[in-house]
Design a protein that fits this description.
The complex is a heterodimer. By secondary structure, chain A is of the alpha/beta class. Helix content of chain A is about 30%, strand content about 20%. The radius of gyration of chain A is 22 Å and the shape is globular. Chain A starts with a helix and ends in a 13-residue tail after the last helix. In chain B, helix 5 (about 245-270) packs across helix 6 (about 280-290). Chain B starts with 5 loop residues before the first helix and ends in a 21-residue tail after the last strand. Chain B has helices at about 5-20, 30-35, 170-180, 225-235, 245-270, 280-290, 305-315, 335-340, 365-370, 390-400, 410, 415-425, and strands at about 75-80, 90-95, 100-105, 115-120, 125, 130-135, 180-185, 195-200, 220-225, 295-300, 320-325, 345, 375, 440-445, 455-460, 460-465. Classes of the chains: A alpha/beta, B alpha/beta. At the A-B interface, helix 4, helix 11 and helix 14 of A face helix 1 and helix 10 of B.
Chain lengths: ~425, ~475
């Protein structure tokens, strides 16, 4: 925990885990989808010290490299799921295993998911099975419209600090129907509360000494929360707001403009109705493109949302908004293609686009020289249901396929044995 | 609506807890069509079927008024036809006539006046069937006004009927139709030990529930094991608060139902004198219908050990379980389920949202299927029901990865003929065979591809959905005038 604390103290930290020095890996002959819109057929990727050292069709395999033959297969960057609770929820309905949200109204913005991150969660290798190598772990908003600080993690690492790519990666909150419920029952109360909160943080940030001397009016946040929000009002830390309804999205955009926030919208089921405004504000959207069931917060939800937002010029990234089936991220992209999103844009929405949104594009999200060797070798089209991730690399390391579900499968693969299944492990 | 806040992240969980389930297979009781014929008997309550078995007295109440939409003869030509009754036929044709599948084969003569649909390069399957849905009882757009799925006021509400909660204007019916779903079993939720009576509907746009009701389909009784009932009632300081409390609650009810049935049997034996007719009890009527083999038990039950206990209890009282639902541990007892002729309605990959779902594996369906069991993919979910073909594909892939020898021809049965068996409707729907209802889906591509769309859906031979023709896409009254209506 000491190391973790130090890492967090440094703010935006890069992954601390390094692969074995000097280890060289080559993935040869595959069809490489770079994540940034380029396809390289029969290409070779060379990985050295956990990072991509070369990629291209004319690349020579270095002597001594461990070679993975990817002929007839597809290689992509490791996928990035942009809104999950991986690592902070083991069994959702078992409170003892859930560390995803604070119900303490004095610890909201200050709440940080990293202290609950469980590197040995059984979910991690299971979600990796779907080619997901990175995930944003987002806190739920329970006690307030602000939930707290999220982290961008790699799905690998023996300790929490070694999983972290960026922490905090963003501040998370809500400005949807649930925000209205939480603040007085109307959308107007939610917007006012968010404004009050931002004004108080600005006041605190401008007058920290006066605050300590009790020379300020009462502020509506605890000291911890005020402090945590300072980078948000300084525009240094993105604020992710879950918003669904079109007019609510416009409210969020107006607040972001006024307070100079670095805003990211999550949800945006009605985003397509205000695509131009989102694009003009350069505000990206984290979404589940399968959201199409009308609710009072999103009566205009449609499977066309992703394609329409993209067409309007909005940067989109996909997320499962869950933990246990975060592995199904790629099928969201496949369905988006089936509903009009260009194929390359769908790949981008689970690789390069989220890397950019989360400020991690020096590190992950593309098959490009210098990036982390987070790579997946697929048996075919990664967006297809009948395709599987054959190998998953994180930091250049070939991840073992073993996981709890595979062990259950092995245990019950046959039912007839002289000993009970409990002896098979 | 599904994200962000704590509520967001627990949305999935809430949905899962909302439900229960049902399919059943087997002892093919009275054919559905037969079970409802017959005239009324003394007191208008009990009737005797020609087979001699007693009919659920309630089958005369709230009868189906479903009428197929007008149709004409259609030949779908040149498709890969997945019949769910044998190997796929490539470049084959299907003839829909008079609301029935009239022929399936390589060379079909086009009857005069028949419409010919060129399906070269496309796929044809039977209409998809979901054994476990809450469409209409947890209708969109949601909220308390439409929260009609769980009568969570008593652990035994076998007296309630899901059909009395169904809102025909639920826009989710149309979304499911766009996914090729033609028959749906709608169940009460799983808060209670006995949640109430479930109903099978045709997925047809209608203004009344009775106009959706599948004619003469057997009713279901929804039962629920495990965490949900004990949590719901335990948290109120009343029974059941434990799994043993659950079992005691079921058995107490079956003991009473046995006695209730004895009184009615005796009355019938004594000549059914209307003056001496025993008092009716709505809940007991449903339980008695189960003991009489007329109402099918659809049993929400996750864990292997609990399923085994439910089977033992069914033997104690002499009824058959049609299907376990949400059977995430079916793979652990697939031999037992097969031996007992009980279907397992399963998800492709849901797991971990509660402890009793922690051992879910992606190969569950494939393992049950491999051993010849009645494997069903169900959804319990208004999102999942829109893409049951995709979930079947995921389960097939998981099985193949584990070396289980299965094909798409096996997997199509998980969403067609096997659910039909669980509902007792396998003689009418679930496969493309002459004489069956012409519930047919024309797919733009292999339905096991993520890129496939249901292009056309036929219900009893009538075109009820056409992806390229908005005039053949139902829009519920609620959505009319909303921005989303045009989607």
């Amino acid at each position: 925990m000491k190391i973790l604390t130090m890492a967090l103290a440094c703010g935006m930290t890069a992954a601390l885990t390094l692969p074995l020095a000097g280890q060289t890996v080559a993935i040869t002959g595959g069809r490489v989808l770079t994540g940034t819109g380029t396809t390289l057929d029969n290409a070779t990727i060379v990985v050295r010290d956990g990072r991509i050292a070369a990629v291209g069709t004319g690349v020579t395999v270095p002597a001594g490299a461990t070679v993975f033959d990817a002929r007839g297969k597809v290689v992509t960057p490791g996928l990035i799921n942009s809104y999950t609770t991986i690592g902070v929820v083991e069994i959702e309905a078992v409170n003892e295993t859930s560390d995803a949200a604070s119900s303490n109204d004095r610890i909201t913005a200050a709440f940080d998911v990293v202290y609950g991150l469980n590197p040995v969660s059984t979910l991690i290798p299971i979600e990796r099975d779907g080619g997901v190598t990175s995930a944003v772990v987002a806190p739920g908003a329970r006690a307030s419209i602000i939930g707290g600080k999220g982290a961008l993690i790699h799905l690998s690492g023996s300790r929490a600090d070694s999983m972290i790519d960026r922490a905090p990666v963003a501040m998370f909150g809500v400005l949807d129907e649930s925000a209205a419920e939480r603040t007085g029952g109307a959308r107007g109360t939610a917007v006012l509360r968010l404004r009050e909160l931002l004004e108080d943080v600005r006041d605190y940030a401008a007058n920290p000494a006066a605050y300590e001397n009790r020379d300020r009016r009462d502020l509506s946040l605890s000291r911890l929360d005020l402090e945590a929000m300072v980078p948000v009002v300084q525009g240094k830390l993105p604020l992710v707001l879950v918003v669904e309804r079109a007019p609510d999205i416009l409210n969020a955009l107006a607040l972001a403009r006024e307070f100079k926030l670095h805003l990211v919208i999550a949800g945006a089921a009605e985003g397509w109705m205000v695509g131009d405004a989102l694009a003009a504000a350069k505000v990206p959207v984290i979404m589940n493109p399968l959201t199409d069931i009308p609710g009072y917060d999103n009566l205009a939800a449609t499977l066309q949302n992703a394609a329409r937002l993209r067409k309007a010029g909005v940067v989109i990234a996909f997320a499962t908004f869950d933990a246990h089936n975060a592995r199904n991220l790629r099928f969201l992209a496949g369905n988006a293609v089936a509903n009009g999103l260009p194929y390359d844009a769908a790949i981008e929405a689970i690789t390069a686009a989220p890397a950019r949104i989360w400020g991690a594009d020096a590190n992950i999200g593309a098959v490009a020289v210098g990036r982390e060797a987070n790579l997946v070798i697929w048996s075919g089209d990664p967006l297809e249901l009948m395709t599987r991730a054959e190998r998953v690399f994180i930091h250049g390391q070939d991840m073992p396929p073993d996981n709890r579900q595979r062990q259950l499968l092995a245990r019950y693969r046959t039912l007839s044995d002289s000993l009970p299944p409990q002896y098979r492990h | 609506m599904k994200y962000g806040s704590a509520a967001v992240l627990t949305g999935f969980l809430a949905a899962a807890l909302a439900c229960s389930q049902p399919p059943a297979t087997t002892p093919a009781p009275v054919k559905a069509a037969d079970s409802v014929a017959a005239a009324s008997s003394p007191g208008g309550i009990y009737r005797t079927a020609e087979e001699g078995g007693r009919i659920d007295n309630s089958t005369t109440a709230f009868p189906s008024t479903y009428k197929p939409l007008p149709s004409h003869s259609v030949v779908i030509r040149g498709a890969t036809v997945m019949t769910a009754a044998g190997p796929s036929l490539k470049g084959a044709s299907v003839l829909l006539q008079d609301g029935k599948v009239a022929a399936v084969g390589m060379s079909i003569t086009v009857p005069p006046g028949a419409e010919v649909v060129d399906a070269t390069g496309k796929w044809v399957t039977p209409g998809i069937i979901d054994t476990h849905s809450h469409l209409g009882v947890y209708a969109a757009p949601g909220g308390q006004s439409l929260d009609d799925g769980n009568e969570a006021t008593s652990p035994n509400t076998s007296d309630v009927w899901a059909e009395h909660s169904v809102w025909p204007q639920d826009p989710q019916f149309g979304l499911a139709l766009a996914g090729g779903v033609t028959t749906i079993e709608i169940l009460p939720g799983s808060a209670n030990l006995f949640g109430g009576r479930g109903v099978v509907v045709r997925n047809i746009a209608a203004t009344t529930v009775q106009a959706m009701k599948y004619p003469n389909a057997p009713y279901a009784l929804k039962m629920a094991c495990g965490e949900n009932p004990k949590r719901v009632y335990g948290s109120r300081g009343r029974a059941p608060s434990t799994r043993m409390g659950n079992m005691a609650g079921y058995r107490e009810a079956w003991i009473k139902a046995t006695e209730y049935k004895r009184r009615w049997d005796k009355w019938r034996e004594d000549g059914s004198d209307p003056a001496k007719m025993p008092d009716r009890d709505l809940g007991m009527e449903t339980l008695m219908g189960v003991l009489d083999g007329q109402i099918r038990i659809q049993n929400h039950c996750y864990r292997a050990d609990e399923m085994a206990e439910m089977i033992a209890m069914s033997k104690e009282f002499g009824y058959h379980i049609a299907s376990f639902h949400h059977a995430v541990e079916a793979y652990k007892i697939r031999d037992l389920l097969k031996r007992e002729g009980i279907c397992a309605s399963m998800w492709s990959d849901w797991w971990g949202f509660k402890l009793e779902a922690y051992d879910g594996i992606r190969q569950n369906i494939a393992l049950v299927a491999e051993d010849g069991g009645c494997a069903i993919l169900h959804t319990d979910d208004p999102d999942g029901i829109q893409r049951m073909n995709q979930d079947a594909a995921k389960s097939l892939e998981a099985g193949l990865e584990a070396g289980i020898q299965l094909t798409e021809d096996d997997a199509i049965k998980w969403i067609t003929i096997n659910p039909a068996r669980a509902l007792g409707l396998e003689n009418e729907v679930g496969s493309l065979e002459p004489g069956k209802r012409a519930d047919v889906v024309l797919w733009s591509a292999d339905p096991f591809s993520v890129y496939a769309h249901a292009e056309r859906v036929y219900l009893d031979g009538a075109l009820v959905y056409d992806r390229s023709d908005p005039s053949r896409q139902p829009v519920s009254d609620f959505m009319l005038g909303q921005q989303g209506a045009t989607r």
